[in-house]
Amino acid sequence: MSSVLPANFLWGASTSPHQTEGDNLNSDWWVLENSGIPLIPERSGDALDSYHRYSEEMALLAEAGLNAYRFGVEWARIEPERGELSRAALAHYRRMVDTALGCGLTPVVTLHHFTNPRWFTELGGWTNPEAVGHFAGFVRAVAPILSDVPWICTINEPNMVASMAAVQRHITDPNALRNIAFGLPPEPDLDSGRILIDAHHAATAILRAETDAAVGWSVAQQAFVASPGCQEQLAEANRVWEDPYLAAARDDDFLGTQAYTSRTVGPDGPIPHPDSPDNTLTNWAYRPDALGLAVRHAWEVTDGTPVLVTENGIATADDARRIAYTTEALTSLGQAMADGIDVRGYLHWSALDNYEWGHWLPTFGLIAVDRQTFTRTAKPSLSWLGGLARANALPPVDTENA
After folding, report:
1. d(CA 323, CA 380)
2. Which of 261, 300, 309 is nearest to 5 (CA)?
3. Can you list the alpha helix ranges (DSSP code H) found in 65-126?
């Protein structure tokens, strides 16, 4: 039997500006992509030209039956130079909000999704104590166009942003780059993490004063599990990788859970994903149960902050496998909800096969995109997820094989 959900449950998909819009010339990631470092072998370029074609993907999502769309506003476009705001960019993102509302899609707007303006990074980025003030100024500038947006995510995956700050210190170290390639990014930079938490709280205060939105941020959850006898190491891994960022959301309106796979923690800490034919195109272990594990951990650490799944998906060229993975992930989510965890919605990553931070091969999308013509083509998984949204019900549980 399927589980019917609250009437206001969000069913949708997510994107980010840099991964889809194209030609984000004033961002620090554009600089990195064009620097020739081996960590970033492919460039975003025109990406999917979503800056001009966003209405096409919104229409496909709405026609399929989804009722929400998470997208971002690009700081580097809105404030391309310090203190210089682009009225045209602000108007563009307001048109995106209006288009989503006109399609019947609840907009979930992210203010920071990994990329920064060049000038911000040149000043030290998130290692600069003045970063909080710079980010708060941007939030004040963008708040007026978000006055009727019901959900705002301040910062996407701050723990990964803090890890990126650590990556930048090792950008020319071949051994560090090799570890990153094998799924072992450096631990989040603690000083940057503290600044990000302060920036989130400053942004939250502004948004609560200027909008009626539910405000939170999203955390990259590792869904760590312990090897036998490694409970202390598990607690330490959670303390380093996500718990401070989860705890910072205790007074938020929601916590964005983002989970794709699970990692085992051994005597020496997190263990790389073992080689397996079941691994995804990102070489992550196939672990759809990670979503349920992550939601439970978030609920525990935040002391009951409502959860919005802001990202969950699989990098695969096999769309039937995407449906199978998502079915299992949603089943684990439903089990968590049955145990009393307050989940407000599920937003799939991603709406489109987009640029994955240096690579085009990993395809997460519900919609395929021809990068020569930019033609959007809905995959069967989009229709399938839309069917669940129309029914507002989780996938039926296979009781015979459960």
Report:
1. 9
2. 309
3. 75-78, 87-103, 118-122
Compute φ and ψ for 149, nearest 5 degrees.
-80, 125
Residue of 157, 242, 328, 356 with catalytic role:
157
Is residue 175 situated within a structural domain? yes
Per-residue DSSP letter, 252: S
| 393, part of any domain | no
Which strands make up the sheet holding 269-270, listed edge to edge? 225-226, 264-266, 269-270
- Residues for the chain: how many in total? 402
Q: Which domain holds residue 174?
A: 10-387
Number of domains comprising the chain = 1
How far apart are the C-alpha atoms of 92 and 80, rounded to whole Å? 15
Strand pairing category for 367-369 and 264-266: unpaired
> Looking at the whole model, is its pTM more than 0.85?
yes
Confidence at residue 181, expressed as pLDDT on a 0 to 100 scale: 47
Q: What is the CATH number of the domain that holds 218?
A: 3.20.20.80
Question: Is-contact 267 230, C-beta < 8 A?
Answer: yes
Least Cα distance to 197 among 216, 177, 223, 181 occurs for 216
Please state, as a whole number, how many other Cβ atoms lie within 10 Å of the Cβ of residue 333: 26
Per-residue pLDDT for 236 more than 80? yes
Residue 306 in any domain: the answer is yes
DSSP structure string for 162-179: HHHHHHHHTTT-HHHHHH
State residue 402's pLDDT score. 47
Judged against a pLDDT cut of 70, whether residue 177 lies above it is answered with no
Say if 399 falls within a structural domain: no
Angle at 157 between CA 211 and CA 30, to 5 degrees: 95
Q: Is 157 one of the annotated active-site residues of the chain?
A: yes
| CA nearest neighbour of 33 among 138, 152, 115 | 115
Computed over every residue of the chain, the mean pLDDT equals: 94
Q: Are strands 254-258 and 106-110 parallel, antiparallel or unpaired?
A: unpaired
- How confident is the model over 220-241, as a mean pLDDT? 98
Per-residue pLDDT tens over the stretch 59-117? 999 999 999 999 999 999 999 999 999 999 999 999 999 999 999 999 999 999 999 99
